[in-house]
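---------- Forwarded message ----------

FYI, see the Threonine--tRNA ligase record below. Original note from H. follows.
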Amino acid sequence: MITITFPDKSTKEFACGTTPMQIAESISPRLAQDVLAATVNGQPWDLSRPLDADAEVQLHKWEDPEGKHAFWHSSAHLLAEALQELYPGVKFGIGPAIENGFYYDIDPNGNKITADDFSKIEAKMIELAQNKEEIKRADISKADALKMFGDRDEQYKCELISELEDGHITTYTQGAFTDLCRGPHLPTTAPIKAAKITSLAGAYWRGDEKRNQLVRVYGITFPKKKMLDEYLALMEEAKKRDHRKLGKEMELFAFSQNVGAGLPLWLPKGAALRDRLEQFLRKIQKKYGYLQVITPHIGNKNLYVTSGHYAKYGKDSFQPIHTPEEGEEYLLKPMNCPHHCEIFKAYPRSYRDLPMRLAEFGTVYRYEQSGELHGLTRVRGFTQDDAHIFCAPDQIKDEFLKVMDIIFYIFNALKFENFEAQISLRDPNNKEKYIGSDENWHLAESAIIEACAEKGLKARTELGEAAFYGPKLDFMVKDAIGRRWQLGTIQVDYNLPERFQLEYTGADNLKHRPVMIHRAPFGSMERFVAVLLEHTAGRFPLWLAPDQCVVLPISEKFNDYAHKAAQELAQNDIRAIVDDRNEKIGKKIRDNELKRIPYLLVVGEKEAQNNEVSVRKQGEGDKGTMKIATFAEYLTKEINDTINS
């Protein structure tokens, strides 16, 4: 017999060789029907895989991330099985589960796959799923794996196998399809009831532009047809909120092939929007004692060799800039932190200088592959709202609390009300992956955990997810249609102070090494604006809107009054424009609603006589007639209430 411990710490004995599915069946038939995957002693596990020793077991349903991962991983194999049947000779790369669905990279090998084929692929997937094919796991030797996939001329699989350690190779088979895979998977294809192929994309094999370009087939599946229908409705809403579409309609940013892919051009309204976000954060940072700095867009290659960024980002950075001086090389900076270390190092520092909080809206550059570029969310040049706090080890917790206050204030002002937090700690069983002493790690991890507890922040903890230099706290925001975005991050770093040999003189008159906290509430200005655009569908909070109101004269003879009203509003710090086109008032209203301007002010003879405006609010309709001064007070109060609530 073996003893199984459940998440609530209760235990139960089972016969050796019992599977997680049999455990689920012993609890209830309904659970056995709903369970999709298991975790055994912290490791993903197939429901049909026997247990031969005492273990801690968790069972996962669709609602759990682990359940969805197994479901979509099995669906990736189902997609590959369908493609194998529909397109003989196709060769397979990799096919993982992703946050929403899965993909499979394939070499068509002479076959042509287009969007017109999507329905055919979906139908084949469901046909195969309805066969309720058993998904069988098998351990296989390296030699047998190379022969199996070699006989099928699967060169991509053979390349992967050649890099694996013998004795740790497994395959999964369903129907006529066998794949190299670690798993875990569903016991059968039966739970997969609805499938949708969502898109095709190009993907270089192993991300190398010099190697074959494969076709990446994206898809998503669900255990119920109704779930797929709801998802497709959500995707239609996402299309309407696409920041690339909204950015063009609202004249915020543009891209030019003459300038270069992945290098956004901020138009006047977009630049003003960015400036307001920056000023908003600068004002907060000033209150918290941050010192603004400016660093160059380039740095000597040795700077990034010292920091370790050249080894980490060398392949993803633009190639070195060679100067006339022999052997002298510069890089477009991929990170701001090495520069900030040199600022700290520029003068002797004392414990009285700590904590030192250096902030910069610093633009960095990374060479993203062209196929990975996407609007403002994936670019080659972006500006980080970067700050680095140099502090003594016993100051970490207090600094963490202050950074959390800043992030919460920003989320509140921008109506990001639904967010999750994750504390990423090191793996205690694999300490060689990390640098720094056990004492320093304990101090840093305890500070983060205690800071979250003091704030009442319910954060999930993930072992093994820490950066190699220290633990971190990440904030994932859910937008208005339920998508998750990582925005704020706080990281503790013992690595760079060591690499740059930073030090300060302590109260004991001895030299000490400071600890460095990396902090970026927005992350990058580009990505943050993209997320904010899609979250609000372009309807920014009033304080942030590029144009807060537009004055619409009902005919040309009221143009002068319209401009007079806009000027009076401007004197009250209200951003107002005038639409004095020779168009009917109905068209002006429709056009300006499309621009997501919060308030539309219609003016005619009555308004001109009484120094008034007729107010329409975006999405709410008519708000009545007000004096211009009264309307200015109304807007100012709304702005103050939003920011300070």
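H. also flagged this: The first helix runs from residue 20 to 27.
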